[in-house]
Specification:
Number of helices: 18
Structural class: alpha/beta
Number of strands: 9
Strand content: 5-15%
Oligomer: single chain
Order of helices and strands: HEHEHEHHEHHHEHHHEHEEHHEHHHH
Length: 441
């Protein structure tokens, strides 16, 4: 699931999943490779082929040993990965390469916050994967995100981010709150409003120097992610100024900031990591990939102090996810398409989940032991395979827009300003809308 991926509100994480019999420390691996290969040198006279995979953050294929396994299955094919840590750096480069028709890898990672723009403006530059994969294998809404109106599929789904809530049981206990995951779920069953009420309970007896949540902007993203309509309507018109989900998320974030329920930390930055390590954060809105961030940054000293329960309310939510696409400009489109099909098949998605915690978008993986029976020892053996699979099956189909990532990141920045600088909500909203309108035209 990728390191420092910040677009669309999600850090492409150092995600480390501890499944049954595994520990987080044993699975912490770096997902980056600096291997670059010129497309003109991707095959030789003996028929051996080198396929390049360009992605961002941590997709988990190397960690799961999948490139080496593919070579064993296909001795004439070697796969090399070229990873960019930050998707904000990766995407402009991808656009430049698509525009010039050169420099592209055989397989390119595509972020969900960009997929609508690519479907609308660059679909003719990608191979149609509907001729290779069975889109019915994925959760219904996933492949629709990468499908053109005439049925062309430009990307095969990798992971998704079904929502949960991660909480520090030690801090909850000291604040007089329940620690059992079912009891916590009952306290927030009414939705994110109940989540804030629980925060007020926490604050009354909170251990000194601790905060109920890490970031109001993270809660905002979780709230908006539960809605089918977020920043655009079906016609492609930006509606973020009038969107009920955006208004709800913004108002809840403003309330959290005003009541000092949040530590006001931008996620994935060094102060946020330090707060996890010091144990000053009681709750974190937790899409599937977030557990890895917490376990890595909180460290061994906090193992067993965290747990995971279902997200507030009864509406399922998804935060994050990516795709693999095959540019037509590649020299080995057929071979690359077959590689994508294999990498996104249930067994391989389950292997990635086991290795780094990226939750599969291919439904066939949910009944495999490495997913179905997965638990997290770091989080009191929370049954995350069950929690996330149940959530994934009921996530609503979201209307995506071409600038979702920009809108979400801009709003999150202004929420951080409310938390950190005390900016009044109306001034923060005015600043956000001006910036967004300028960016999206």
């Amino acid at each position: 699931m990728r390191i420092t991926r910040t677009v669309a509100g999600r850090g492409r994480r150092v995600a480390v999943l501890a499944t049954t019999g595994l520990t987080a420390s044993a699975l912490l691996l770096t997902g980056c490779s600096s291997d670059d290969s010129d497309s003109n040198e991707s095959s030789d006279a003996n028929g051996k082929i080198t396929l390049t995979v360009a992605d961002f953050g941590q997709f988990g294929y190397k960690e799961a040993g999948l490139f080496a396994k593919y070579h064993e299955l296909h001795p004439n094919i070697t796969v090399k990965e070229d990873t960019t840590a930050d998707e904000k750096v990766y995407y402009p480069k991808l656009l430049q390469q698509l525009n010039s028709g050169s420099g592209l890898a055989d397989v390119q990672g595509l972020e969900v916050g960009r997929i609508k723009e690519l479907v609308d403006t660059k679909a003719d530059q990608f191979a149609d994967l509907s001729k290779v994969i069975d889109v019915n294998e994925w959760v219904s809404w996933k492949e629709k995100q990468a499908t053109t109106p005439d049925g062309k599929v430009i990307g095969a789904g990798t992971d998704i981010g079904p929502m949960s809530l991660c909480y520090n049981t030690e801090l909850f206990k000291k604040a007089g709150l329940p620690t059992d995951r079912k009891e916590v779920a009952a306290k927030i069953s009414g939705g994110w409003e109940d989540y804030l009420k629980l925060g007020e309970e926490y604050k009354k007896k909170a251990p000194a120097g601790t905060f109920y949540m890490d970031s109001a902007s993270a809660m905002y993203n979780a709230v908006v992610s539960s809605s089918a309509k977020q920043y655009y309507d079906e016609s492609g018109k930006p509606i973020y100024k009038d969107s009920p989900s955006v208004q709800q998320g913004w108002n809840l974030a403003a309330e959290a900031a005003d009541k000092k329920l949040t530590q006001g930390l931008a996620q994935f930055n060094d102060p946020w990591k330090a707060a996890l390590r010091k144990g000053t954060i009681a709750t974190v809105a937790c899409p599937a990939w977030m557990a890895g961030q917490i376990s890595v940054n909180a460290g061994d000293g906090n193992k067993g102090k965290w747990d995971i329960t279902t997200a507030p309310g009864s509406t399922a939510a998804n935060w994050g996810g990516s795709f693999l696409g095959v540019p037509k400009a590649g020299k080995h489109v057929d071979e690359a398409s077959k590689l994508v099909k294999w990498l996104t098949a249930p067994e391989q998605q389950a292997a990635v989940f086991k290795a780094i915690g990226s939750f599969p978008s291919n439904k066939g993986a949910y009944d495999l032991p490495d997913v179905k029976n997965a638990t997290l020892p770091y989080f009191n053996d929370a049954p995350i395979g069950q929690i996330y699979a149940d959530e994934a099956k009921s996530i609503p189909e979201t209307v995506l827009g071409p600038k979702d990532g920009i809108i979400k990141d801009t709003i999150s920045t202004q929420i951080n300003n409310m938390e950190q600088r005390g900016t009044a909500p109306d001034k923060a909203w005015e600043a956000a809308t001006k910036s967004i309108d300028k960016a999206i035209g």
